[in-house]
Amino acid sequence: MTQAKRQSRKLGWRFVVVAVAVIFVFLALVRNVLADVYYIPSGSMEPLLLTGDRVLVSRLAFANHPIERGDVVVFDGRGSFTPLKSGAGPVADAVVGTGQWLGLVPNDHIYVKRVLGVAGDTVKCCSTGGLLEVNGVPVTESYLHPGDKPSELKFEVTVPQGKLWLMGDHRSVSLDSRSLLGAPGGGLISTSRVIGSPLATVWPLGRLHLIDSDGTALP
């Protein structure tokens, strides 16, 4: 093999490596800036989202308008639903964080719930008719899992600025803001922890459908 051929082959491999690296970084940027796909590990949002669904999530869903009551949000639960620190040490945390950013490690601290209270709201369970109350007004929740009550746990909470009160649609199995009453933060989730909102269920193929902005499945 001549030196010219060896040099050409070396340059060809370098081009392939650089091209793969560029594509890899581009996809990672898309996932962390525009949209990403998340796995649904539980039935807490049934019937909208089922265990095993993979949903496409828009990271720009709330770029031009505030989060509203009724919105379904995907959020980072560290510091509220899960501990802020993993306890594995700064080096291990950095490795895991990088892996999650690149899509190599699952995000076990990512959750999806429905917004039932925004800043200034007083959320209470339940009215004399057995409905959830927001600011003294009973709320009819058509998205609730069939047979579920709004909540078996009675509570009343006023949502401060920058916080959200979140609950799953399958109330009888959902671990949500109610589960954190009495814990630091009182079950309230910071708006800064919201990643985005589901756009569509993309897997399995039999479940392929769009999700409306108000968190309802479109045919």
Task: Describe the 3D structure.
With 219 residues, this protein is of the alpha+beta class. It has two domains: 33 residues; 175 residues, Ribbon (Umud Fragment, subunit A), CATH 2.10.109. Helix content is 20%, strand content 26%. The strands form two sheets. Strands 1, 2, 3, 4, 9, 10, 11 and 12 form an eight-stranded antiparallel β-sheet that branches. It has a four-stranded antiparallel β-sheet with strand order 7-6-5-8, with no helix packed on it. Strand 5 and strand 6 form a beta hairpin. About 10% of the residues have low confidence.
Low-confidence parts: 84-105
At the first level of CATH, what is the class of the largest domain? Mainly Beta
Task: Give me the strand/helix succession.
Answer: HEEEHEEEEEEEEE
Broad shape: globular
Number of strands: 12
Structural class label: alpha+beta
- Average pLDDT over all residues: 80
What CATH calls the topology of the largest domain is Umud Fragment, subunit A
List strands and helices in order, with pairings.
Blueprint: H1 3-33, E1 35-39, E2 54-58, E3 72-76, H2 90-102, E4 110-117, E5 122-125, E6 132-134, E7 137-139, E8 155-158, E9 163-167, E10 188-190, E11 194-203, E12 209-210
Antiparallel strand pairs: 1-2, 2-11, 3-4, 3-11, 4-9, 5-6, 5-8, 6-7, 9-10, 11-12
What distinguishing features does this structure have?
219 residues, alpha+beta, Umud Fragment, subunit A, 2 domains
In short:
The protein is of the alpha+beta class. The protein has helices at residues 3-33, 90-102, and strands at 35-39, 54-58, 72-76, 110-117, 122-125, 132-134, 137-139, 155-158, 163-167, 188-190, 194-203, 209-210.
